[in-house]
TrEMBL record:
Pfam families: DUF5753, HTH_31. This is Transcriptional regulator with XRE-family HTH domain. Residues 29-84 form the HTH cro/C1-type domain. GO terms for molecular function: DNA binding. CDD domains: HTH_XRE. InterPro entries: Cro/C1-type_HTH (IPR001387), DUF5753 (IPR043917), Lambda_DNA-bd_dom_sf (IPR010982).
Amino acid sequence: MIAVADQRSEEGVMSRGGPVRRRHLIRELKRLRSARGVSQDEVSTRMGWDRGKIHRLEGGRLQRIKASDVIALCNLYEVSAEETEILAEIARESRQKSWWYRYKNVFAGPFIGLEAEAASLFEYSASIVPGLFQTKEYMAALMESSAGLMATEDEKSKRIDARGERQSSLLERVDPPRIWTVIDEAALRRQVGGPEVMKRQISHLAELSQRPNIDLQVLPFEVGAHAAAGFQFSILVFSEADSIVYIEADQDGLYLEEEEQVERYKLVFDRLQASAMSVERSKDFLKSLSK
């Protein structure tokens, strides 16, 4: 059953500036406007803004939300000074750049920032080893695929560096997220980079599976058709009441936030776990493949 990891509270998840805090800020501003019974057009008129600005702000399409705009909106909505300052501080923090901004041409969309703030991660990988668990050799071999051939050597190197920093920033920190991963047997059998690269990659997976915050299960061929046949996805859980589903695509991907959508994918993941090898059997299976 999918749940939030015990080691990180909701307050801990929301303690840094980033995509989750930004989402919280936007939701609060929309809630405060609705509570005052003010339409978006009325806000635009009373604030002296063009009609599109409030739509872009509440739709999450503004790259940066100014603290001064948040304060002005809070004054319009007659929000207390204390709550106004809390929301304005979130706006200030959300403007601070994190490590992944150095790789903005590598990481499309907000996924990396959201991943960095998740308390728990649930992922099903159908065709390749998940990015968080890839060795550099495996990454390099992927870069030689048809997509990778379109990049220069410098671009390939930057992509590998970016993925390495993503791994270390998430997996090696003091409070790593709780990670549940189901990997299709096909991803382990596919010879990316050849037998030696795969042997080291699978050994790396076996080592990671020993970590207390990582549960790894293998979905064997013998299962046949299953709940996620034909696609792969990730569920990012920030708190008991806040989760999103990410479905990877060529550039960015699809983000699902509606409660019914998220619950559907949680059910799919629960069924995948039930169909997959147990955590202990999966560890033994990985060890057998790495010999």
